[in-house]
């Protein structure tokens, strides 16, 4: 596969040049103020503030099923390094993975619950900051990809738009795809060998085309679930089984997916915000 870039972790091209990720950014562990009754008390999160001159467009990151681990922090760092004010709420604030995974998964399926209030609290908090341009996106991975998919359908063609762009990475599809109408522009990435989401890319492509939603949906042949992580995640005892299930990193597919996301967010968040303060 060739050498890796010394500043990002992805593979360089044939000429030894990396056009992918800038240097990682410094992140802060924070408590996100909440005004919603259903939100987690003392909602924890990870914040990335760009080192460039603000104000900046913003991105809400929704973590994967195993919660806020090192791999998720890398995704926040990457978005921050591109000049996005980035926050990732901890959906397991109320009790950790074991206590919260079930109720969080149920919230995803039902469309209501504490996890939704936590995500919305993060968005509202960003919206109140004076270093925010007013253009905001959402990105999710695995479980978080499912949340991002549904959050994108926030009335984009109405006055109640929550997000201007969304990135869905191997996120679960709802049983009724009609719920994703009125979506903001969406970029989605799926693995062709992902056993947990069969034909996800094809189904999304067809539905978004039918609905007239601006989209970029791509399936990576021979790639499994969670391919955008650099390293395996989850409890050590489970990792051999996760690998057998095809849940493993794929650096080449990940690099391509990030290149697409970087361009997509740049088009829909930076251009729309013009990097200027809100009125």
Textual characterization of the structure:
- This protein is α/β, with parallel strands linked by helices and 279 residues long.
- It is 33% helix and 18% strand.
- The chain contains seven helices and eight strands, in the order E-E-E-H-E-H-H-E-H-E-E-H-E-H-H.
- The protein has helices at 70-81, 96-110, 114-127, 143-151, 200-211, 239-244, 251-273, and strands spanning 27-31, 44-48, 56-62, 85-89, 132-141, 165-169, 186-191, 215-220.
- An eight-stranded mixed β-sheet has the order 1-2-4-3-5-6-7-8, with helices on both faces.
- Helix 5 links the parallel strand 7 (186-191) and strand 8 (215-220).
- The longest helix is centred in the C-terminal third of the chain and has 23 residues, at 251-273.
- It is globular and about 45 Å long.
- It starts with 26 loop residues before the first strand and ends in a 6-residue tail after the last helix.
- The model is unreliable at 5-12, 17-24 and 274-279 (pLDDT under 50).
Task: Describe how the helices and strands are arranged.
Blueprint: E1 27-31, E2 44-48, E3 56-62, H1 70-81, E4 85-89, H2 96-110, H3 114-127, E5 132-141, H4 143-151, E6 165-169, E7 186-191, H5 200-211, E8 215-220, H6 239-244, H7 251-273
Parallel strand pairs: 3-4, 3-5, 5-6, 6-7, 7-8
Antiparallel strand pairs: 1-2, 2-4
């Amino acid at each position: 596969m060739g050498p890796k870039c010394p500043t990002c972790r992805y593979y360089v091209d044939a000429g030894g040049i990396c056009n992918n990720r800038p240097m990682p950014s410094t992140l802060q562990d924070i408590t996100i103020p909440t005004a919603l009754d259903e939100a987690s008390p003392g909602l924890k999160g990870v914040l990335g503030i760009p080192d460039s001159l603000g104000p900046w467009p913003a991105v809400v990151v929704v973590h994967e099923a195993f919660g806020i681990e090192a791999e998720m922090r890398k995704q926040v760092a990457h978005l921050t390094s591109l000049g996005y004010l980035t926050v990732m709420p901890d959906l397991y604030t109320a009790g950790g993975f074991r206590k919260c995974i079930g109720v969080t998964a149920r919230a995803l399926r039902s469309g209501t619950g504490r996890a939704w209030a936590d995500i919305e609290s993060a968005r509202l908090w960003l919206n109140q900051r004076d270093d925010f341009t007013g253009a905001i996106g959402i990105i999710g991975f695995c479980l978080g990809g499912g949340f991002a998919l549904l959050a994108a359908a926030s009335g984009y063609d109405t006055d109640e738009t929550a997000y201007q762009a969304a990135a869905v990475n191997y996120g679960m599809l709802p049983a009724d795809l009609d719920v994703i109408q009125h979506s903001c522009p969406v970029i989605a990435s799926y693995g062709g060998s992902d056993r947990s989401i069969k034909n996800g890319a094809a189904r999304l492509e067809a539905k978004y085309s039918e609905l007239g939603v601006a989209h970029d949906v791509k399936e990576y042949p021979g790639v499994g679930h969670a391919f955008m992580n650099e390293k395996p995640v989850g409890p050590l005892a489970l990792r051999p089984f996760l690998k057998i299930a095809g849940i493993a990193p794929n650096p080449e597919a990940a690099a391509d997916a990030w290149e697409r996301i970087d361009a997509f967010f740049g088009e829909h968040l930076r251009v729309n915000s013009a990097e200027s303060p809100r009125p």
